[in-house]
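Retro notes - structure team

What went well: the batch runner handled both jobs without manual restarts.
What didn't: labels got mixed up in the shared folder, which is why I'm recording both outputs here explicitly, each with its sequence directly above its tokens.

Job 1
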Amino acid sequence: MTKGAESAPSQPASGNRAIRSIVIVGGGTAGWMAATMLVRRLEKQPVRITVVESSEISTVGVGEATVPGIRDFFREIGVTEQEVLVASRGTVKLGIEFVDWKQPGERFFHPFGLYGMRSRGVAFHQYWLKMRQAGLAIDLEDYCLATAMARANRFMLPTDRPVHDLLFFDWAVHFDAGLFAKFLAARATAQGVGHVDARIVNVRRNGESGMIDGVDTACGKSIDGDLFIDCSGFRSLLLGAALGSPYEDWTNLLPCDRAVAMPCELAGPLTPFTRSTALAAGWQWRIPLQHRVGNGYVYSSRHLSDDEAVHVLRSRLEGEALAEPNMIRFRTGHRRDFWRGNCVALGLAAGFMEPLESTSITLIQTGIEKLLALFPDRDFDPALAAEYNRTTALEYERIRDFLLLHYWANRRRGEPMWDRCRDTALPETLARKIRLFKAHGHLVRYDWESFHDPSWLSMYAGFDIVAAGHDRAADYFSLPDLESALARMRDAIGQSLALAEPHDAFLKAYCAA
């Protein structure tokens, strides 16, 4: 991830103003990710960490897909991918397949990997553009190993030191969010994190500073703290309800505001990727796990009723439903401030970006990392909160633009929601990216981008957004030279693919180890 400032291990506060206690309100994925990371990174400091959650309140619990950065989190907390896959009944994720997004009957793949090889300092996609502009039908996806493995339902662990770009790819995981949270909770409590199972009925604020002094629970227990982390979900009990941070609503840009989730039995292949299928009023996700398939329909309530959404999703399940529909209402956007006073919000309490590109857990992870890099003392210097809020807002905006591109670039006709999406007035940050790519294939990169050049390239190619020109440095090679080079690249990818094994066979051996 491109960041405006480097993360660094937190340092103890000077004097006697160090943080002594952290109260995390809410469990689930956000709360227990925060607890496990904080107890690990602050292990040399005398800080008491307590998670307060109520077993009476259910979590959303459908965040089951991740991006490769999650494996950095695993390393940070001292666990392996094998441990996580076993505990959460997880599978491998090489990227996302987009079905019917450009238009019905077409599909493309967003991989965790590179396309082709650079030559003479020129990016591969410039040679691809040169050949396309010469009238040659070159499929960009044929030059990515991650895409080739996904197509074949195969996987192998990447080499630590690939000899060239063709062998480079990354991977993430799908997991059962409930099982993952339980895995983290067991680890955190074993390392000394306190756990209170109780419903919060009151948030106590300091009459002079306005900061939070503590929370009161329904069982009569009061819990005080220095730093509070709001992981209470859409309720945003601390940051939103108690501290009044307003919500920036982006529904005018990203139209979906509802989702229905329903797991089912696995009947199709155990694919090493997420599938996103565009439907009349939104899109459907398919996330394969070892013991079931996660399914959901993300939709616009202005174009589809809840009952209709349930009917459509149920009719498209590949196997028998394993639970009743879980209805979720949301507003895409974020709290204006993510950190106010002595409270920082993570996860749904901070904001929500629809799960189209699996960014919810990424935002939790980077939020924790930024908090540790800017870790306060009990004086809570406003400059720390201001920097956290600035960079987090940028991160949300970059993700918003990437998601918006998916909707705006569609060519589905005669469907009100999709027709409206094509007419959306784009933020200048996104419009500039598109203009420069259309000019001659230039890929713009801003600070705090979650998605790197290959991700944007996969969207431009998948939606057939055409560049008028290409980098003239690509003209060093003749078309016959390039055709020969590309043939060798396809052969090299084919040879590497032959070394991979079926995804289900890999999981059996890898998890057993």
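Job 2
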Amino acid sequence: MNSQSSFFRFLVAGAIALLLFSIAGFYWFFAKSPVGLVISRSQPGAAVFISKLSPVMVSLLVNPEGLPGLEQKGEISQIKANLLAKTSIDYQEDIKPWLGNEITLAVTSPDIDRDPENGLQSGYLMALATDNPAQSRELIELLFSKRSLAGANLAVEQYKGVKLLYDTQETSATAPIQTSLAGTVVDKFVLFANDAQVLREAINNVQAPDLNLTSSPEYQKATQQIHQDAVAVTFLNLPEVANWQGLELAESTYSSQILSLVLNPQGLLVESTFLTSTEVTSSSPSLSKPVGALDYIPASAGLVISGANLNNLPNSDLAKLWRQGTATIYGSSAEAISRWLKPLVDVEKDWGVNFSEDIFSWVVGEYAIATLTEDSAILPKEGNATPNWVFVVEKTPQLVEGIARLDKIASSKGLNVSSLSLKQQTVYAWTELKAISQDELALSVEAKIQGVHTNQGNYEIFTSDLKTMDKVLTSKEKSLIDNPKFQDTISAIPHINQGYIYIDWKKSHKLLERQLPLLKFVEVLGKPLFKNLRSLTVSSYSRESGTLKGGAFFQLHRS
């Protein structure tokens, strides 16, 4: 069964593109349209057609016509045209009159006939809610009659009281070869699949409820985590996703994931929940407000990470998710780090630092880490491999030991540990001293600062250089916590959380692209989103046992 599906995959790709374009266009709706968007506020109705062993299900819970901003820009019309390019169907006349408020896509099985000896062919199902089943049946008849006239060998089958129409594999000698498509109407859904067997199994799932996704305890638990204002939902059965992709799920702490897409006047929130039956520990305590360490992060920061208690990170729920994902995809976490986080690997190698033991172990209070820039490109100075940085740590009994450990590492690298005065404040510097010969009778000493730290209030502040420390200590620039842009973006995140990762996209994307080459590919795939992106904020806010819950808020430009 290794033929078929280019047509159906074209439909699936187009529908996924519709989902991506809708992400970028939701903010247009709020900015330009006074009409309310109709959201189903429930789990996807098409789940009754999908097996509980399905790897993935994606549902758009709004009608595409509810996105007028994109229609004005012509993007929705383009997607509709692409979706129907090979069908001779007119969206306005044949689909729009009956299309309801749900479009669901699912991978039903990794192999339709479950016989790997004849090749693997995944099963794909698309379900479109219909407000007029009779009119929808006319569309199905029209579609397959046109495919028959084009040379496809049409088959009609009555299966358990449902009429199925589909192409058989044979075509006439003179007609171009067409790949398989199957369609039917069941209750209030129009179903398309890449094989008639997928439709038969969908009907079986409805008539034997213990077979479908809604009967799965794992799915039932996951649907309780759907955001009440979700306009799109994705459910992933992680062991089956791994099997579908030819991988073996390693360290299987988490068995499923559900994502909700939520509209916001400032942009959109993607909320994710991983579910597990094992005991997991949060990476940091819940915080009711942003950490005080952010008071020392300048508003010009391009990338900021804040929270509390890095000491627990290696054994946390986030760490277990990281190990599961990286071990499954790359074979080990070390291999993933070498590919994705090479700059951190280089720092550990060059400085002889183990982040977990030499830094994380003594950060048991609040912290904030940031990169700074003086321009919108956040490009480091010429010859400097990394941007300027700030690291703020709350004072705790473990802090003195931590600084002593860093001093020892600096000394082992030949750096001098010394003190000096800056703005009437004593600061301590790790300095590389070099003797420079000016002539036969004169020598001078060049000092290159590799890092600086001082205390301020209840915090110890570390920076990459004196200029950055001066910027932190001066009162001329507002702190990040007083930045209206930052306040807008964190307002979309539940106020009780475990901290934030905040990225000012304009300032940071060049740096991130250079450090993470794969990001450019992601930007191409999500161009409608990234071209309008203003900032990205990620937070974890797990509060229920057996869940790892968090969200990513995409703040978008409104013009």
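One thing worth noting from job 2: The mean pLDDT is 80.
We'll revisit the folder naming next retro.
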